[in-house]
Amino acid sequence: MRAVRLSVATAVATVAALTAVTGCTEKSDAKGGSGAIKVTATDDGCEVAKTEFPAGHVELAVENKGSRVTEVEILFPDDRIVSERENIGPGTRHTLTAEVKSGDYRIACIPGMKGKGHRQDVKVTGGKAAAKRDPRLDKAVADYRAYAQEQADATLPRVKTFTDAVRAGDLDAAKKAYAVSRIGWERTEPVAESFGNIDPKTDARADGLEEGQKWTGWHRLEKALWQDKKIGAEEKALATQLDKDLASWQQRVGKAEITPTSMANGAKELLDEVATGKVTGEEERYSHTDLVDFKGNVEGAEKAYDLLKPVASANDAALTKELDKQFAALDKLLATYRTDKNTDPDAYTFVSYDKVGKADRKELSDAVNALAEPLSKLAAAVVK
Description:
Layout: H1 8-29, E1 37-41, E2 46-48, E3 52-54, E4 56-64, E5 70-75, E6 81-88, E7 93-100, E8 103-111, E9 118-125, H2 135-167, H3 171-178, H4 183-187, H5 189-193, H6 198-203, H7 218-228, H8 233-252, H9 260-278, H10 290-315, H11 317-335, H12 358-375, H13 378-382
Parallel strand pairs: 1-4, 3-9
Antiparallel strand pairs: 1-2, 4-7, 5-6, 5-8, 8-9
Helix pairs in contact: 1-12, 2-3, 2-8, 2-10, 3-7, 7-8, 9-10, 9-12, 10-11, 11-12
């Protein structure tokens, strides 16, 4: 999950900033509809008002009464994520809309966004699982699943170019291949994170490790390349481990639980990723390639939105008009930081993020916030 890469201090500061922009909307819609299930998150527990409810479209009205930023997840018994909402600040409320089939699940509240948190077992009842949905949404899910698989398939050879350079001890070649090796992952991160154990192995930062966890993956190698400026036996072994971990991700993508609401929620999660990691410069703190990740997150969010748009626009034309406007504005702003002169969508390069000043970072943050607020309503729009 993304939480393993986000320092709690940064999360609190970021959520405070986001709340200043979107807090009124979040608080006003957090009560949900009349059938919403109230979830109260505290530092010491996770209170779910109803532990048995019917299958179909489920709405959780989440309130964080704790002192820390929290995350709420709907989980399968094997810890795969059905849907989640991250970065719920202290004293704020959010609505999580999900499509859930009949069966046994857990609802988890994770204060500090680290570890397994506090869990409540719930049972979802009802004959044939979820309500019958619009065939256009079935197509959106199928197309998004194909997109996620394509991104995973394309990532492996890019990663091998990177890891081959690490194993060869070629510092310059490894640096050159690093950012592009991450694009497919960044575009489809919510799918990768739904498996739980892949993300901590491949994409954790040093300040996001669980107790006793060994630091592996991209960012461990990033530190070696840019800060330590050396490649030793350990780094070469970590490169091979990264290949193996990402091959596991590629093989599991086809088994991911994907629904229209998880696509919509995932799009919002990708914008949260930008707000809490890329805009702050936390994500790529050694290489400063944050804007490449930023672009990948936005592209992934826009892909999910485009696939859901036919239904969302029929249900809420004003919302999709606003989303079109804000995606276009953010895409245009990001383009001003590109330094490449070609049209290859997977070969873009951007200015080093340490060269982006405070005023420009605020402009990027404002554009992300302007998109995140209406995007938070997409899940509800596709299930009306």
